[in-house]
Amino acid sequence: MSKIVVLGAGLVGSVMAKDLSNQHEVTSVDISSKNLHNLGNVKTICADITDKLKLQNIIKDFDLVVGAVPGFMGYQMMQDVIEAKKNIVDISFFPEDPFGLDSLAKDNEVIAIMDCGVAPGMGNVILGHHNLNMEVKRYECLVGGLPEKREWPYEYQAVFSPIDVIEEYVRPARYIVNHELIIREALSDAELVNFDNVGTLESWNSDGLRSLIQTMPHIPNMIEKTLRYPGCVEYLKVLRDSGFFSYDQIDIKGVKVRPIEVTSKLLFPKWEMKDGDKDFTVMRIVIDGIENGNKVSYQYNLLDRFQDDTLSMARTTGFTCTAVANLVLNGNYKQFGISPPEFLGKHFEYIREYLENRGVIYTIKKS
């Protein structure tokens, strides 16, 4: 039985800790004692892991670290873990370039797998799988996590920290057209898309390709778009363009404040998942290319809903991460350095089966 420490016990981190505790000895660490309640047979430590020495002392006796902290903490946390020579599988989706830690991880002989969620995450694994078996010409991913109940004005709830969600609305979106990198503002090119058993949703440009831009330069067309209920984009554009998402300090009666911090504080109660709330995750991936000399198109569809008293976004994100954690613990993935999830393409079937055993089912159509 392996010893695993999960850093972060929020809505996703807690689900991962419980899942891993079915096979391993798991300890969960969080600065909030409230988050550490009701974790079953998971051991708990209440601590501030932004303290490097404290973090490295906590993780020193574990076989694997699983990261589930907010994005703004993710890069430094991963660096501290790598310096402690511990393998890590992470979902913090930090904004910094992860490959800045690649040499450090290789020098310390550390396996460091990042972005192990649903998208980025499973979408990358799917693309990595097809990249090994065909000449990919186009990759498109539409994805979103939404509440079952639509409530005015935002019709949205989040399992991640508010600042991490707001990052999607302000970070420039990058995508590839005919091998050319295109950079557009987030929330641009909104369009309506219909999904079976869901209805019409609105897609818009977001910066979800992340590592794929560097690792898959041979693919001529790649794009990722986020999904929300129709109309949501206009509210977000008003807030963003009015400065509510700005990190630049402003002076309010002699007090320096960053609007983003005020906005996230105000929005958290509006976006927080509460007892009894349910959600669903929808994703559509289309991969076109040449396989065995013939033109082919693969479409992957995911529609996952709240079940087993667990939020869908926590399941679809968390179980992808725990599947990869088991790959590392079982010795089936041994590559030192920074590994984005597309490097796990040859393990697609294992990860897909792991998810399916937990009720997260991807359907596949080939044409």
Strand and helix map with partners:
Layout: E1 3-7, H1 11-20, E2 25-30, E3 43-46, H2 52-59, E4 64-67, H3 71-83, E5 88-90, H4 102-107, E6 111-113, H5 122-131, E7 135-147, H6 162-170, E8 173-177, E9 180-184, E10 191-195, E11 199-205, H7 212-215, E12 221-228, H8 232-241, E13 250-252, E14 255-257, H9 259-271, E15 279-291, E16 294-305, H10 312-329, E17 337-339, H11 348-356, E18 362-366
Parallel strand pairs: 1-2, 1-4, 2-3, 4-5, 5-6, 6-17, 7-12
Antiparallel strand pairs: 7-15, 8-9, 10-11, 11-12, 13-14, 15-16, 16-18
How would you explain this protein's 3D organization?
By secondary structure, the chain is of the alpha/beta class. It folds into 2 domains: 3-117 and 312-361, NAD(P)-binding Rossmann-like Domain (Rossmann fold); 122-305, Dihydrodipicolinate Reductase, domain 2 (2-Layer Sandwich). It has 11 helices and 18 strands. The protein has helices spanning 11-20, 52-59, 71-83, 102-107, 122-131, 162-170, 212-215, 232-241, 259-271, 312-329, 348-356, and strands at residues 3-7, 25-30, 43-46, 64-67, 88-90, 111-113, 135-147, 173-177, 180-184, 191-195, 199-205, 221-228, 250-252, 255-257, 279-291, 294-305, 337-339, 362-366. α1 (11-20) links the parallel β1 and β2. α1 (11-20) packs across α10 (312-329) and α10 packs across α11 (348-356). The longest helix is centred in the last third of the chain and has 18 residues, at 312-329. The relative contact order is 0.16. The mean pLDDT is 95.
